[in-house]
Amino acid sequence: MADSSRVQRVADQIQRDLATLIQMEVSDPRVGMVSVTGVDVSRDLSYAKVHVTVMNSLTDNDSVNDSTLSEPGDLDKLEVAENIKALNQAAGYLRTLLAKRLKLRTVPKLQFHYDGSIERGQKLSRMIDDALAADRNQHKDD
Q: Does the pTM of the predicted model rise above 0.85?
């Protein structure tokens, strides 16, 4: 029991630190607006699976934005893949920076994964809103 609470505390601290480090220290242009949504750390603290979401990265050119994004909030799968690839390539660097912040004997190896739960939640919310609107329209006609 005490062991799992320690693992959870380490995971929470890694999540907070990585959110700051990605924003401030990663200068790879492929990494856009990334949010760390969760970290799962193995029991022996050797691996950390980092779950991230990627926000739309808009350019200064509105015609490019309109042609690349079907709707505000929709992400191109290629953009997500490039962000994850860049983060996984920067994992060693981020691990080194984490080692300077954390008071651990060994810092977990980082593996970044896309977390599509926010996107799925928005899709479900739109479906519920559409169903409610259709129901209201049907009862209005009665």
A: no
Question: What is the tens place of the pLDDT at every residue in 45-65?
Answer: 999 999 999 876 554 555 545
Which of 34, 3, 15 has the alpha carbon at shortest distance from 98? 15
137 inside domain: no
Look up the CATH number of the domain holding residue 35.
Answer: 3.30.300.20
Domain count, the chain: 1
Pairwise CA distance, residues 53 & 67, whole Å = 22
Asked, for residue 122, whether it belongs to a domain, the answer is no
Structure tokens at 131: 């169903």
d(CA 40, CA 119): 20
Residue in 17, 21, 6 with CA at minimum distance from that of residue 93: 21
